[in-house]
Amino acid sequence: MKPIYMFGKGNKDMKGLLGGKGANLAEMTSLGLPVPFGFTITTEVCEYYTKEGKYPETLEAEIGASLAKVEKKMGMKFGDADNPLLFSVRSGAAVSMPGMMDTILNLGLNDKTVEGLSKKTDNPRFAWDSYRRFIQMFGNVVMEIPSSNFERILENAKHTKGIEYDTELDTDDLQAIVEEYKRLIFRKKGKKFPQDTMEQLHMAINAVFGSWNNERAILYRRLNSITGLNGTAVNVQAMVFGNMGDKSGTGVAFSRNPSTGENIFYGEYLINAQGEDVVAGIRTPKPLSELKKAMPEIYGKLVSFKDKLETHYKDMQDMEFTIQRGKLYFLQTRNGKRTAAAAVKIAVDMVGEGLLTQEQAVMNVNPNQLNHLLHPQLDPLAKSKADTIATGLPASPGAAVGEVVFDAKKAHELVEQEKRDVILVRTETSPEDLIGMNAAQGILTARGGMTSHAAVVARGMGKCCVAGCQDITVHEKDGHFMVGNMRVSEGDTISMDGAEGKVYLGAIPTTNADLSGDFTKLMQWADEARALRVRANADTPHDAEVARKFGAEGIGLCRTEHMFFEGDRINMMREMILAPDKESRKKALAKLLPLQQGDFKGLFDVMQGYPVTIRMLDPPLHEFLPHAEDDVKAVAGELGVSVDELKEKIESLHETNPMLGHRGCRLAITFPEIAEMQTEAIIRAAIEVRKDGREIVPEIMIPLVANINEFSYLKEIVTRVADRIINDEGIDLVYMVGTMIEVPRAALTADDIAREAEFFSFGTNDLTQMALGFSRDDMNKFVPDYLAKNLMEHDPFEVLDQTGVGQLMKIAVEKGRQTRPDITLGICGEHGGDPESVKFCHYVGMDYVSCSPYRLPIARLAAAQAVIEEAEAMKAEKAAARAARPAKPKAKTAKKAAKKTVKRVAKKTTKKAVKAPKAKRSAKTVKKTAKKKTVKKVAKKKITKKKVVKKKITKKKTAKKTAKTTKRSTKAAKKKTTKKTVKKTKRPRR
After folding, report:
1. Looking at 828, 831, 841, 851, which residue is catalytic?
2. Cβ(197)–Cβ(79) under 8 Å?
3. Mean per-residue pLDDT for 872-900?
């Protein structure tokens, strides 16, 4: 294990080892950008530290040696009282996790070095401000004292002096605050603030590695499906200072607008400040456009460097910079977080600019982000009539309507337990607020800018956010915010427009977003690349219309039971359930027949020839009956039966475990008349469509089959009814009968079932439930603990369990195709809209995925990415195989290369002669060409003089031979050579 890399020794492709920040710092150093020097402690050390509870034995010595290199490069010494070198100690995982892990700035300051820094810079205020900041960050991050304790001391000092901003504190004020900070630490921890700089460094490294498993970092990884990482790296970097006066500053810049995707240089900065001031939202920063006026030379360099980085990384960059006394430094670059709309626009624009290929553009958009594009917007008409009560920065677009809540944990509880829509309102957010930000419809902050914590995290989540809303004053403890004289209390409803940064009192209706332009273009590129087809889970013509709008190529699951709950149908269904015998049941079902037929025709009409898979009745019958006392009485009256009679039926249908009870194919085996009615409705609807001259191939799906006998029994009923109706109508109609693979036994015996079934559709909801032994209805009592304790990477009902459930699917795919090579295979569980699950379906060889209509764009993009990733993996595999081949001796290689060149030239010449007999070449020309090209090749390979002479002799012989071949080929071409002769002269396909 190599535990440390100096900046410049790694590169951007080493993110797994150096973390995103470390890899990019190394890359920027190599590109010649002004990066303060430092080193990266690798993620492997973090993994070792997490598992073993200690560091590798060589680490301390490596840190010492690395410090010496930085000291030499920077011309300063760590811990020196006269010329102190200070460091930032920052986290950096392979995947960006903004604000989730810990950072310490100004490390190396103590009571002696602060005096040295003061003299060296001739700026005592700056030195003591840096010391104050360091103690506050170190005390919070490393010594785990809540930040509010330090903030209270700072706010009291400002209040006593009657000032608003930190920058108005003088040196004496800052010295007094430092002493109070040190007393606070001793009071809280029973030990003094460490003065030894090496002790500070080791404690900071421990804290950053430890923050990998803090609560907010774990939550962020879970929410963003970040798995499989070793841990975080630690970047120890020489400090440069943005708080050294009016010619110093700090900022965050994006090479394009992260909210809209426009190709406009975008960002914010603060004069006389450090980076945390910008991202934490402590002070509201200025737009970069003002830096162009204040420091034109610095602005020009920023523009030049951002162009260089964007072209190099081929993606929108998020950059942190510091200006120290008129000199520009880059502290970080990374692929920037952006809204879904911006992600799509940037990808499409970059193809137009020649920066990306279509395939790269498809890979640059996170499929899950597309879900954010479908978020509603405030209704334009209603919005125009509403009064704006406050305006802030349009930090993240979209609409949010909900109750005002001031506490993150409370927001989470209201959403989880009471299913209420809330808007989290804070003075400014911090990483601890993540749980509430994730639950809320939107986020509103009084302070902070477009690059503040609230803005960056909201954009990544696709949440509406209005930041830096200075019109409001937030009183979190008292549970209200003020807008002038207006008081908005917790529980009041507000509406927000994240694209305009506006806040409205009360609820404004929302409308669905319009998808066109760049989105359509990106989806077109995805459709060109993907192999998997996409279908929708849809039960009504309206659902089907929405699905077609989002690109559905058929319906993969129509749940017929949903049709029985509409209007009077539920009573017809109840009448069937209460019927005393088969004939009575048939009469009740006859009432449902035309209604179901109309439903199915509506689906066929919308789908216009695309396949439609219809699942026969699946849930147990007790789900159609009432259970509350009042409902029982009401239904009994409507059906004309006694309450006791209805209660007796309900009791008889009661099941201990309904999901494993009398449902699915078991229901149709007990009551075959249900299957008969549904088959008739499907076939008659299809015949209506065929009579109108349109194609349709209905797919009839039998659910919950566990063995071939169940399927064969029901298939006989379906085909008997279907064939009779088709024959009676005298029409040509093709239909398919298949099954849903949702029982583990069905997956394991798929070769047997495929003898009868023409298609499989994987019902991964139930397959997951049965394979894991988890009840979907009860899992929330324990699965959150599994996720929090890293016992599972994902909720298995959201992301397919590929190593368990996935293997059952893989077995079923292989066995099904073994018996029936042309079998159609798809997936219709909720996993059909999850990107990783979609990719798995591609890799195991399925034909389609089916998901809810609004997740279709996600499935389309993920399916395309699966093809591109597979192609890239194959290229990498071939390259690795080539690299692994043993090297041949140089002389022999050169000799072989020379021979190949002669053959290639001869073959090329022969081919041309055959293809175009008119453009004959003389034997002399062929000889000359072959000779010239071979000599060139030999020269390149630097063969010795003696061998060159030998090669020339070979060449002459070969050239003569080539000339003869060419003459023969030319003659043959004149006589119209046979296909076989021409084929021999062609270059073989690679």
Report:
1. 828
2. yes
3. 71
- The C-alpha R_g of the chain, in whole angstroms, comes to 35
For residues 197 and 187, what is the distance between their CA atoms, to the nearest angstrom? 22
Residues 6+ apart with CB under 8 A from 362: 347, 522, 525, 526, 529, 861, 864, 865, 868
- Quick one: tokens of 894? 């050169």
Q: Maximum Cα–Cα distance for the chain, whole Å? A: 112
Report the C-alpha gap between 153 and 252 in whole angstroms: 28
Say if residues 422 and 440 touch (Cβ distance below 8 Å).
yes
Query: Which amino acid, one-letter code, is at 836?
Result: E
What pTM did the predictor assign? 0.73
Tens of pLDDT, residue by residue over 633-677, are: 888 888 888 888 888 888 888 887 877 889 999 999 999 999 999
For residue 951, pLDDT over 50 is answered with no
Outline where DSSP puts E strands in 784-931. 824-827, 848-851
Other C-beta atoms closer than 10 Å to the C-beta of 985 total 19
pLDDT digits (tens, 9 = 90+) for 582-617: 999 999 999 999 999 999 999 999 998 899 999 999
**Locate tokens 């939107």: which residue?**
442
Q: Which of 375, 453, 794, 831 is catalytic?
A: 453
Using a 10 angstrom Cβ sphere, with 0-12 exposed, 13-18 middle and 19 or more buried, the burial of residue 919 is exposed
The C-alpha atoms of residue 261 and residue 499 are separated, in whole angstroms, by 13
Active site residue 453: yes
- Three-state secondary structure call for residue 559: strand
Backbone angles phi, psi at 737, to 5 degrees: -125, 125
Dist. CA 81–CA 103, nearest whole Å:
24
